[in-house]
């Protein structure tokens, strides 16, 4: 297991949709161990594989003292009439936090290392995490979901950082 370096914008791996995991081998097992160890640090809620440079569909989470992972996650349900607005940040976009609208509830389905079905669901912070990490695996950043005026401000701040 290893604590992995977090890739930051403008690294192209963050904008590349991740591939499905088709074979559970030692490489995937090591990836899961690295995701779990790297997310287990203060202030970290979630971590997608591409954030540590691996373009495979996997992420880990660290919410309310629960750490877990899911392979090949897909969002299968979002609350359609309940939303949450709150400041959102990202390990790959350090130091920038902006109000981001997300569904209040989210449900993700995937598999574990034994190919058993995994269902992860939650509200508030867990729902935000599930949506945020799944976006990463699709090559999206939370900045892409910002309202136009806020996104413009965020991109200006990002350019000033780089």
TrEMBL record:
Pfam families: Pep_deformylase. One of its GO terms (biological process) is translation. Its EC number is 3.5.1.88. One of its GO terms (molecular function) is metal ion binding. Fe cation binds at residues 90, 132, 136. Its cofactor is Fe(2+). It catalyses: N-terminal N-formyl-L-methionyl-[peptide] + H2O = N-terminal L-methionyl-[peptide] + formate. InterPro entries: Peptide_deformylase, Peptide_deformylase_sf. It comes from the Bacteria. Binds 1 Fe(2+) ion. The active site is at 133. Keywords: Hydrolase, Iron, Metal-binding, Protein biosynthesis. The keyword Glycosyltransferase does not apply. Signal peptide: none annotated. It is an enzyme of class 3 (hydrolase). Belongs to the polypeptide deformylase family. PANTHER family: PEPTIDE DEFORMYLASE (PTHR10458), PEPTIDE DEFORMYLASE, MITOCHONDRIAL (PTHR10458:SF2). Removes the formyl group from the N-terminal Met of newly synthesized proteins. Requires at least a dipeptide for an efficient rate of reaction. N-terminal L-methionine is a prerequisite for activity but the enzyme has broad specificity at other positions. This is Peptide deformylase. It comes from Luteimicrobium subarcticum.
């Amino acid at each position: 297991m290893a604590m992995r370096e977090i890739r930051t914008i403008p690294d192209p791996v963050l904008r590349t949709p991740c591939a499905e995991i088709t074979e559970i081998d030692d490489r995937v097992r090591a990836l899961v161990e690295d995701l779990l160890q790297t997310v287990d640090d203060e202030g970290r809620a979630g971590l997608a594989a591409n954030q540590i440079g691996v373009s495979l569909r996997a992420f880990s989470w660290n919410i309310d003292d629960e750490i877990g992972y899911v392979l090949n996650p897909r969002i299968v349900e979002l609350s359609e009439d309940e939303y949450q607005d709150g400041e959102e940040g990202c390990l790959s976009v350090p130091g920038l936090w902006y109000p981001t609208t997300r569904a209040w509830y989210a449900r993700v389905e995937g598999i574990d290392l034994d190919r058993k079905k995994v269902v992860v669901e939650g509200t508030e912070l867990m729902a935000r995490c599930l949506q945020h990490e799944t976006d990463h695996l699709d090559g999206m950043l939370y900045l892409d979901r910002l309202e136009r005026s806020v996104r413009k401000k965020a991109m200006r701040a990002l350019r000033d950082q780089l």
